[in-house]
Specification:
Tyrosyl-Transfer RNA Synthetase, two-stranded parallel sheet, 350 residues, single chain, 3-stranded parallel β-sheet, mainly alpha, 51% helix, 2 domains, binds tryptophan, Rossmann fold, binds iron/sulfur cluster
Length: 350
């Protein structure tokens, strides 16, 4: 496939600091694969982080850097992928502003994550203009690159749907030259996410302190697995268990090879193995998967200039693409930089 025939995907990730297995399995691993088949734009959504963390932005910069390291470690390839930082491309903010003119308030109040998040993050005051407008910013992020597809988890599909509605309204109001459609409607590309619970059995999340980082060293991974919850029915060593209802079993299904899996299923169901042994195998396989990533991370950690150059190059590519869309958008909305005198209406004399 040559570059021009490839469909374009655009996706963003909030800078939450060092990434965990849930981030990898739920998004990053899929992004790495998409590089083979699509033209990829991936960015660190630092403005999005500010919609909830505006009162203390002290971690946003370092968290963004950690995310970039983990992306490179996981195998995002700067030769093939445009990886950049959202706030380094101010055109996103301009399109956000223009979209905000045409987005009815009702559409935003109806976005399911709006009320949910406001309730979940009840320690923060999220009754702000920026938080309500979050999905409009996301719509600008996607549209400014004329994305064909947006790889997202189920929780973000509503945002892509809203993007499509905003784009339709935009195209309706502002046709391009000769009636051309300026902005294509993006499609969500639902990421298939295998179940990956944290060490306490709940969804893996930074806010639950139940996560395993991609960058956790071997002893830390072994320790975290030791305390991981198992099939609650397996109280004694002699009780049979079921890997399908065990968080350790879920880890095996994602990271272990077929031979290990067979041993786990047979041994667990017959009480032939103990959980400690089983967790040891899970740790072995996980460590084996993470080893090449951690090796790459170390290289980049020792080479901050290289990381900075990679992001700067991504920023520049993203800005060029974003600016080209914005030129069309400005012209269609009567904001052309070629400031011209009013046209005289035909037939009238001044
Ligand atoms: N809202 C997304 C999240 O919380 C992150 C994001 C921001 C995004 N802009 C985007 C995802 C554009 C896809 C496309 O996970
Ligand atoms: Fe879970 Fe393994 Fe114990 Fe079975 S043996 S309950 S899969 S940890």
């Amino acid at each position: 496939m040559n570059e021009t025939s490839k469909k374009r995907v655009v996706s963003g990730m909030r800078p939450t600091g060092k990434l965990h297995l849930g981030n990898y399995v739920g998004a990053l691993a899929n992004w790495v694969k998409l590089q083979d088949t699509h033209e990829c734009f991936f960015f660190i959504a630092d403005w999005h982080a500010l919609t909830t963390d505006y009162a203390d932005p002290s971690q946003v910069g370092s968290n963004s850097y950690e995310v970039a390291l983990d992306w490179l470690a996981a195998g995002l390839d700067p030769e093939r992928t445009t990886m950049f930082v959202q706030s380094h491309v101010p055109q996103h903010a301009e399109l956000h502003l223009l979209f905000s003119m045409i987005t009815p308030l009702g559409w935003l109040e109806r976005v399911p994550t709006y009320k949910e998040q406001q309730q979940n993050l009840d320690t923060k005051d999220l009754s702000t203009y920026g938080f309500l407008g979050y999905p409009v910013l996301q719509s600008a992020d996607i549209t400014i690159y004329k994305a064909d597809f947006v790889p997202v988890g189920q929780d973000q599909v509503a945002h892509v749907e809203l993007t499509r509605e905003i784009v339709r309204r935009f195209n309706n109001f502002y046709p391009g030259k000769n009636g051309a459609v300026i902005l294509p409607e993006p499609h969500p590309l639902l990421t298939p996410t295998p179940k990956l619970p944290g060490t306490d059995g709940r969804k893996m999340s930074k806010s639950y302190d139940n996560y395993i980082l991609l960058s956790d060293p071997e002893p830390v991974i072994r320790q975290k697995l030791k305390t991981m919850v198992t099939d609650p029915a397996r109280v004694r060593r002699t009780d049979p268990g079921n890997p399908d209802v065990c968080p350790v079993g879920d880890l095996h299904k994602i990271f272990s090879d077929g031979t290990t899996l067979e041993k786990v299923y047979a041994g667990c169901r017959s009480a032939g193995i103990g959980c400690i042994e089983c967790k040891g195998w899970a740790a072995d396989n996980l460590i084996k998967t993470l080893a090449p990533m951690q090796e790459r991370r170390k290289q980049y950690e020792q080479n901050p200039k290289q990381v900075r150059d990679i992001i700067a190059a991504g920023d520049a590519r993203a800005r060029a693409s974003a600016e080209s869309t914005m030129t069309e958008v400005r012209n269609a909305m009567g904001l052309s930089q070629d400031f011209e005198p009013p046209q005289q209406a035909a037939g009238k004399t001044p």
